[in-house]
Design a protein that fits this description.
By secondary structure, the protein is α+β, with helices and mostly antiparallel strands. The chain has nine helices and 20 strands.
Length: 373
C-alpha cells in the first residue's frame, strides 16, 4: 500500500490545482481514471476569463485568480495563460430588463462594466443583426485562457516537487481505518490522512464509496461547435454572449466557436454532442448574426457539474474527518483554479480562507459541504 500525505482523486483542473498548491506541504498522489489528465471537462472547455461570469459566490473566485493567471510564478507557464478578448453581452428588446438586472448584480464587484447602445454593440461585432440587438453590456476584463498551458503548469509543478500523477487508475473502494483513508484502485492500494475528492462529475459516486451521502451534484452537458470562417470576420471580435445564456460565440483559430449554452442533465459519462443541440446552436447563431453555416467543422460536448445552488463545494465533510470535497465547480473551474487551489491549501492546512479572499463578501461557509447537510 502506497502512503502519501494528500491523495487526490481526479487530475482535471480541480485536482491539478489542489495538488499544485499542496505540493510543498507534503507528498501528493493524484489518481486519474482516464489515460490523460483533463480528458472530460478540462479538455473540452471553451475557456475564458470573464469577471462578469457566474453567481455572487463565483465572481470573487474569478477576481482572486486574475493575478496568478496574468503573472504566473517563474517557470510555471511555457506561454502566456491569458490572451485579451473582451466580452460583449447582448440583449433583444424583450431582454432589456434582464440586461439591467444583470448590470446591477455586476457593478458591486466589477464597477467598470458598462451598458451600451445598439450602435455601440454593432461597432464591436458587425455580424450581429441590428434588428435583433437592442443593447448590450461590455466587460473589457475578459480574456481567452490557454487551458493546456494552465493545466500542464499545475501538473508539472506537482511532478517537479516529487508528486505522482497516476493515470489509467480506476478507484474501486474507499474506506477509513483509524486516522487514515484507504483507497483501492485498479493500479494498487493507497493510504492518506487527507483524501481530496476532485472527481468532477463522479464526485458524488466517490463519496458514496466512502459511505457518505451524496450532495446532489448534477453533471450538465454543454455543446460546442466550430463553424468555418465567415466572409466578414475579425479576430478581435469580443466573446459575444446572450444575456440570458441562450448562446455565445467567439473567434477561434480563424473560425467561429459557438455554443447554445445548453445545460442538459446527464449521468456522469463520456459526453457526446446531440444532433438536436448542434441544430439549435446553428439556429440561434443565425438568428442573432449574419454568420453562415455551410457546414460544421467539428463539434463536441463536455460536462459542467453543479451543486444545487450552483456554487462550488470546498471543504471537509463534517461527518468524515480528512475527506475534503473539491467539486461542483460547474463551468467556472478553469478560470477560478488559482483561487480554488489556494482555498484548498489554506482550508486543509489552517482551517481558514486565503487572505486574498478577505476583500470579498464570502467566507468558508459559502462553499462548505455542510450547507447541504
Amino acid at each position: 500500500m502506497q502512503a502519501c500525505d494528500f491523495l487526490i482523486i481526479g487530475a482535471g483542473m480541480a485536482g491539478a490545482s489542489a495538488g499544485y498548491f499542496l505540493r510543498e506541504h507534503g507528498s501528493v498522489v493524484v489518481l486519474e481514471r482516464e489515460s490523460q489528465p483533463g480528458y472530460h471537462t478540462t479538455g473540452r472547455s471553451a475557456a475564458f476569463y470573464a469577471r462578469s461570469y457566474g453567481n455572487e459566490a463565483v465572481r470573487p473566485l474569478i477576481l482572486a485568480s486574475g493575478d496568478f493567471e496574468h503573472h504566473p510564478p517563474d517557470g510555471f507557464a511555457t506561454a502566456p495563460i491569458l490572451h485579451k478578448r473582451g466580452a460583449l453581452y447582448v440583449a433583444r428588446e424583450d431582454q432589456q430588463e434582464s440586461l439591467k438586472a444583470f448590470h446591477q448584480r455586476l457593478v458591486a464587484l466589477t464597477p467598470d462594466v458598462e451598458l451600451v447602445s445598439r450602435d455601440a454593440v454593432m461597432e464591436q461585432c458587425s455580424v450581429l443583426r441590428p434588428d435583433y440587438v437592442a443593447g448590450g453590456l461590455v466587460d473589457n476584463g475578459c480574456y481567452d485562457i490557454d487551458v493546456d498551458v494552465l493545466h500542464q503548469g499545475y501538473l508539472r509543478g506537482i511532478r517537479d516537487a516529487g508528486g505522482t500523477i497516476q493515470i489509467d487508475t480506476d478507484v474501486t473502494a474507499v474506506s477509513r481505518s483509524g486516522a487514515n483513508w484507504h483507497v483501492e484502485t485498479s493500479a494498487g492500494s493507497y493510504t492518506a490522512e487527507v483524501i481530496i475528492n476532485a472527481a468532477g462529475a463522479w464526485a458524488d459516486p466517490v463519496a458514496q464509496m466512502a459511505g457518505l451521502d451524496p450532495l446532489g451534484l448534477q453533471p450538465l452537458r454543454r455543446t460546442v461547435i466550430i463553424l468555418p470562417q465567415p466572409p466578414v470576420f475579425d479576430t478581435d471580435w469580443p466573446l459575444v454572449l446572450d444575456v440570458d445564456d441562450e448562446f455565445y460565440f467567439k473567434p477561434e483559430a480563424g473560425k467561429i466557436l459557438a455554443s447554445p449554452g445548453d445545460e442538459t442533465p446527464v449521468p456522469a459519462s463520456d459526453a457526446q454532442p446531440e444532433e438536436l443541440d448542434i441544430a439549435i446552436t446553428v439556429d440561434r447563431i443565425q438568428t442573432a448574426t449574419t454568420i453562415p453555416a455551410p457546414r460544421i467543422d467539428s463539434s463536441w460536448a463536455g460536462l459542467r457539474t453543479f451543486a444545487p445552488d450552483r456554487t462550488p463545494v470546498v471543504g471537509f465533510d463534517p461527518s468524515a474527518p480528512g475527506f475534503f470535497w473539491f467539486a461542483g465547480q460547474g463551468g467556472y473551474g478553469i478560470k477560478t483554479s488559482p483561487a480554488m487551489g489556494r482555498m484548498a491549501e489554506d482550508l486543509i492546512l489552517h482551517g481558514r480562507m486565503p487572505g486574498e479572499m478577505d476583500a470579498y463578501p464570502v467566507s468558508a461557509a459559502t462553499y462548505a459541504p455542510d450547507r447541504f447537510r
